[in-house]
Specification:
Family: Belongs to the MoeA family.
Protein name: Molybdopterin molybdenumtransferase
Organism: Amycolatopsis samaneae
InterPro entries: MoaB/Mog-like_dom_sf (IPR036425), MoaB/Mog_dom (IPR001453), MoeA-like (IPR038987), MoeA_C_domain_IV (IPR005111), MoeA_C_domain_IV_sf (IPR036688), MoeA_linker/N (IPR005110), MoeA_linker/N_sf (IPR036135)
Number of helices: 7
CATH architecture of the largest domain: 3-Layer(aba) Sandwich
Structural class: alpha/beta
Keywords: Magnesium, Metal-binding, Molybdenum, Molybdenum cofactor biosynthesis, Transferase
Distance between the termini: 27 Å
Largest sheet: 6 strands, mixed
Radius of gyration: 31 Å
Bound molecules: ligand LQZAQKY5, molybdate ion
CATH topology of the largest domain: Molybdenum Cofactor Biosythetic Enzyme, Chain A
Length: 401
């Protein structure tokens, strides 16, 4: 048996890191920056007003008050966007709007609320501290410095900053194209009616949603029957356009293990991983394309996704933080675990106010067919390989989903 940690490493190495590509900002949301971004301009790019008001010299309004207004001639009017700003002469004011360039010679802005709003002459009712309501060149970002680091997840604020420093495109890790295929002759796609012995296909729906959720493009092939020739005929032609093939089902010890039968000797190795659920696994390359074959039980699929696929895909997409948040929590009921395997049980974690730990209890049993319980869980309880029981009140590791 291969350890969970060794297999996780193996799958991550198989996927590697996606190459860089250039995309317009509009297509970059959720992708990962492949290179540092240096600011081509400072932010703000020039000294400007933070308020609608009047650009003045602070010394000219030093004695201003409600009952002792200072009157200044309004020598110019500066809306935002004006590019030909004349200097401010001593003893004058320029009417100025928020975001408009500060005239040379001005060292403060008086808010319009502290004036009589005059357009020929303005009466100012309050003094101004030097630098009042002025946003200085470069106080947010200095030209030539790194505005965004490689590895940054491009959310809306990061894309806003890229736009603000004048970029139209970014170098990102190329989103991966993942081919998801589910196998099993018992599988039926809704709304076909079920006959006894058949079940509705659900793994490809889960995998597609989970993988898309990481920022990959997914193509799904649903319900491939348990026939090696059919499996090859349906999937092989699609490999050329995929960075990864993920299958479910057909990998354990029975007589009709279509994935195992089709891919053994083709570059894919099948092994048992020391975990429960998700024990039977396969991975390797088929026609040079990375392949990860998951067992068919739905909860095994979800746990395998958490244990191997999610971290490997996130790494491949360029993320540096690929782990779920791990916390310690006290068990609300006793649990058993198969010795020699790491058990991942679905659980409900509740933080306890004022404590670094919280409490956690299992939701549903260990069976890998119990999908409904997974939907009610918010965490996985991890019982390590050297443990066969954990008692109520004991602290355990919890992965928050
Ligand atoms: N003799 C042994 N039998 C089994 C072993 C073993 O070690 N020795 N391992 C068990 C474990 S653990 C698992 S997990 C499963 C894995 O089997 P397969 O990967 O071959 O999966 P299937 O047999 O095709 O399916 C298992 C189960 O899941 C259902 N299934 C499959 N695909 C889907 C789908 N797309 N949507 C919904 N449900 C699906 C399928 O009907 C089966 O009930 O093997 C154990 N057996
Ligand atoms: O290892 Mo299997 O994935 O328990 O049902």
């Amino acid at each position: 048996m291969i350890s969970v940690d060794a297999y996780r490493e193996q799958v991550a190495e198989l996927l590697g890191t996606a190459p860089a590509t250039t995309v317009p900002l509009a297509d970059a949301a959720g992708l990962i920056l492949a290179e540092d971004v240096r600011a081509g301009v400072s932010l703000p790019p020039f000294d400007n007003s933070a308020m609608d008001g009047y650009a003045i010299r602070a010394a000219d309004v030093a004695g201003a008050g409600r009952d002792t207004p200072v009157a200044l001639p309004v020598a110019d009017d500066i809306p935002a966007g004006r590019i030909d700003v004349a200097p401010l002469a001593a003893g004058t004011a320029h009417r100025i709007m928020t975001g408009a360039p500060l005239p040379p010679g001005a060292d403060a802005v008086v808010m319009v609320e502290d004036t009589d709003r005059g357009t020929e002459t303005v009466r100012i009712f309050a003094p101004a501290a030097a630098n009042a309501h002025i946003r200085r060149l470069g106080e947010d970002v200095a030209e030539g410095t790194v505005a965004l680091r490689a590895g940054t997840v491009l959310g809306h604020s990061q894309l806003g900053l890229a736009a603000a420093v004048g970029l139209a495109e970014l170098r990102v890790h190329r989103p991966l194209r993942v081919l998801v295929a589910s196998t099993g002759s018992e599988l039926v796609d809704a709304p076909e009616p079920l006959r006894h012995g058949q079940i509705y296909e659900s793994n490809s729906v889960m995998l597609a949603a989970a993988i898309r959720g990481l920022g990959c493009a997914v193509e799904v092939i649903r319900s491939v029957v348990d026939d090696v020739d059919e499996f090859r005929a349906v999937i092989e032609p699609k490999l050329a356009d995929a960075d990864l093939l993920v299958t479910s089902g057909g990998v354990s010890a029975g007589a009709y293990e279509v994935v195992k039968d089709a891919l053994t000797g083709q570059g894919v190795e099948f092994a048992k991983i020391a975990m429960q659920p998700g024990g039977p696994q396969g991975s390797g390359r088929w026609n040079g394309v990375p392949v990860v074959t998951l067992p068919g039980n739905p909860v095994s699929v979800l746990v395998s996704f958490e244990a191997f696929l999610r971290p490997a895909l996130l790494t491949a997409l360029g993320h540096t933080d690929v782990d779920r948040r791990r916390v310690r929590a006290r068990l609300t009921e006793s649990m058993t675990s198969p010795r020699g395997r790491r058990q991942y049980r679905r659980g409900v974690y509740t933080p306890v106010l004022g404590e670094v730990t919280g409490i956690v209890g299992p939701r549903g049993g260990p069976g890998s067919h119990l999908l409904a319980a997974f939907t009610q869980a918010n965490c996985l309880i991890v019982l390590p390989e050297d443990v066969d029981a954990a008692t109520e009140g004991e602290e355990v590791d919890v992965l928050l989903l």
